[in-house]
Amino acid sequence: MRVVMFGYQTWGHRTLRALLESDHEVVLVVTHPKSDHAYEKIWDDSVADLAAEHGVPVLLRNRPDDEELMGRLKEADPDLIVANNWRTWIPPQIFGLPRRGTLNVHDSLLPAYAGFSPIIWALINGEEEVGVTAHMMNEELDAGDIVVQRAVPVGPSDTAADLFHRTVDLIGPIVAESLDFIASGRTDFTPQDRSKASFFHKRSIEDSRIDWTWPAEDIERLVRAQCDPYPNAFTHYKGERVRVLKASVSKGVYGGTPGRVFIREGDGVVIVAGADARRGRSHGLLIERVRTEDGTDLPATEYFRKMGGYLTDRP
């Protein structure tokens, strides 16, 4: 098949690599220009550089909405478009152009977690599995029939970085299997159960702000989800922003006001957490390691030298 690829960052890079290693011909690559946005500088293997290394023509676009792009796509005469981590909507005149349609690769177990940052949202929400889905694109974002889907389990100490590496390793095999299915003429793909669909927005700095009324279990997952190299989960202490790098749920149950710097336990410091904390029914969050505003990493026991005071969501 003649294949055009739309993609960006490491997800697009892995997809393009799988296409280049296949028996199919990559005739054009469309990718985004480099960005200084914090999230787009994470996992930023260059699709454009990989295409250039293999002599594949490249177009840089923020959006696929100009006449030159449409002309180049028609000249490419694709049997299939394959997309992964393309950051804007692809209109019907493009995804419907190839003879065999457009295959989109998304890093969630669709129909759940359509949209943005699916691994981070899934980890925060305590999902037991994450994964990757290849589906045929239609007019609704991440809603088309499923071609191939693979899952990996989420362990009790897994971070978003751990899950990124496990899911990105699924991309190559999933793309290869999907190409085989489509090239064989198969169209017996699996419709999504739209009653189970969910759609999540892009994450921003506000989404990393710790709310101490959350249960400690939820905050602990937020800390793992916002691990390096992502912007870390953060709070404020005595007016200074403090990033929480490592935390766990306390062994003891502690009562009081959420956010209170309460007591040492093991190698960390317990912060009162949870809506039921005032009734003495909640475990606290045991903070073990923090990063100060100047970038210094410290054990929590060195940072919180005295007990008392409060962690707050604002300075």
Automatic annotation (TrEMBL):
Transmembrane stretches, start-end: none
Keyword Cytoplasm: no
EC annotation from Swiss-Prot or TrEMBL: 2.1.2.9
SUPFAM superfamilies associated with the record: FMT C-terminal domain-like, Formyltransferase
Gene3D superfamilies reported in the protein's UniProt record: 3.40.50.12230
Keyword tags: Transferase
GO MF annotation list: methionyl-tRNA formyltransferase activity
InterPro entries named among the record's database cross-references: Formyl_trans_C (IPR005793), Formyl_transf_N (IPR002376), Formyl_transf_N_sf (IPR036477), Formyl_transferase-like_C_sf (IPR011034)
Domain Formyl transferase N-terminal: 1-169
Cellular component aspect of the GO annotation: cytosol
One Pfam family named in its UniProt record: Formyl_trans_C
Domain Formyl transferase C-terminal per the UniProt entry, residue ranges: 206-306
Highest taxon, organism lineage: Bacteria
Name by which UniProt lists this protein: Methionyl-tRNA formyltransferase
Species this protein is from: Actinomadura livida
